[in-house]
Specification:
There is one protein chain. 26% of the residues lie in helices and 31% in strands. The radius of gyration is 17 Å and the shape is elongated. The protein has four helices and eight strands, in the order βαβαβββαβαββ. The chain has 162 residues and is an alpha/beta fold.
C-alpha cells in the first residue's frame, strides 16, 4: 500500500468512548480475522491509543500505515495486517472471471506440482474468494504469506506450500 491517499479499509472498528486498552484489544480481535495485507480502520478518542498502537508493531505483525483526525471525532488509525513484506511467487495463476470454487480448485492442482516452500500467486475477482482462500488455507496447512486487493473486488493471494 504505497499510496496512502487511496487507502481503503477492509473493516472499520469505531471504539470511541472505550478506555484504553479497549481499542487495542478490539483491533487485535478484528485483525485476527483479516487476511495478511488487509487494512483495519480503528477509530478511537482515548488519548493513550496512539502510544499503544505505535508500540504494537514491535510485538506483532502489524503496520500502522497512517492516522488522521475524523470528522465525527476521534482519530482514525489505518492498521495493515503484516508489515508490508513482499513475497516473490514461483508461479502465477490468474483466474479472473472464474467463479468459486474454480479458483481454489485450480490453485490446488497447481500447488500439488510445486515444491515445499514455493509460493503461488493467485489472482481472482470471484466475490467469495476471500472466504474460500481463508478456509482452504486453514484446512490444508498452507501458509497465506500475503494478500491484497489490487482493484475493487480483485484480490491477489500469495500461498506458500508447506
Amino acid at each position: 500500500m504505497a499510496k496512502t491517499a487511496k487507502l481503503k479499509p477492509h473493516v472499520t472498528l469505531d471504539m470511541k468512548g472505550a478506555a484504553c486498552p479497549g481499542p487495542l484489544l478490539g483491533a487485535r480481535r478484528v485483525l485476527d480475522e483479516l487476511l495478511p495485507g488487509e487494512v483495519l480502520l480503528l477509530i478511537s478518542d482515548c488519548p493513550a491509543t496512539r502510544d499503544d498502537l505505535y508500540s504494537w508493531p514491535k510485538y506483532a505483525d502489524v503496520e500502522i500505515v497512517k492516522s488522521e483526525k475524523q470528522a465525527r471525532g476521534g482519530t482514525g488509525y489505518y492498521i495493515r495486517k503484516g508489515k508490508g513484506r513482499r513475497v516473490s511467487p514461483n508461479a502465477v495463476l490468474d483466474v479472473r472471471g472464474a467463479t468459486c470454487p474454480g479458483p481454489v480448485l485450480e490453485a490446488r492442482k497447481l500447488l500439488k506440482r510445486m515444491k515445499e516452500g514455493e509460493v503461488l500467486q493467485l489472482v481472482s475477482d470471484c466475490p467469495g474468494i476471500r472466504a474460500d482462500v481463508r478456509s482452504w488455507v486453514k484446512a490444508t496447512g498452507l501458509e497465506l504469506a500475503d494478500a491484497r486487493e489490487n482493484a475493487p473486488g480483485e484480490y491477489v493471494f500469495f500461498i506458500r506450500k508447506r
